[in-house]
Known about the structure:
Distance between the termini: 45 Å
Mean pLDDT: 90
CATH class: Alpha Beta
Number of domains: 1
Helix content: 25-40%
CATH superfamily: PurM-like C-terminal domain
Number of helices: 5
CATH architecture: Alpha-Beta Complex
Number of strands: 6
Structural class: alpha+beta
Strand order of the largest sheet: 4-2-5-6
Radius of gyration: 15 Å
CATH topology: Phosphoribosyl-aminoimidazole Synthetase, Chain A, domain 2
Amino acid sequence: xxxxxxxxxxxxxxxxxxxxxxxxxxxxxxxxxxxxxxxxxxxxxxxxxxxxxxxxxxxxxxxxxxxxxxxxxxxxxxxxxxxxxxxxxxxxxxxxxxxxxxxxxxxxxxxxxxxxxxxxxxxxxxxxxxxxxx
Length: 134
């Protein structure tokens, strides 16, 4: 927590969201909504020691609310500095799992398998509690 806090204060982090309420799926959706930009992630890159059944692993990786986990957005030009800093602070359990995109879509994959592919506009409508117009 202290290392991440210092990375944020040091300007290495563009945005950060905890994975407490809804896990990675909800955090990535909320971050996409905040910037109205797309995001593409591959949950196959998530560091995990879980040996869940293959059919439930995707659900676990997407919605696990394990404490002390964060989704962090780093500008490409800050990535090397962020990685070096975190490692120098003894933090090694992190991975680059995706990127911000100009697609205006939330895309979640596990390897080559697409799990979620939704327009940010649809997420925004659902978040506001508005009924989609047919």
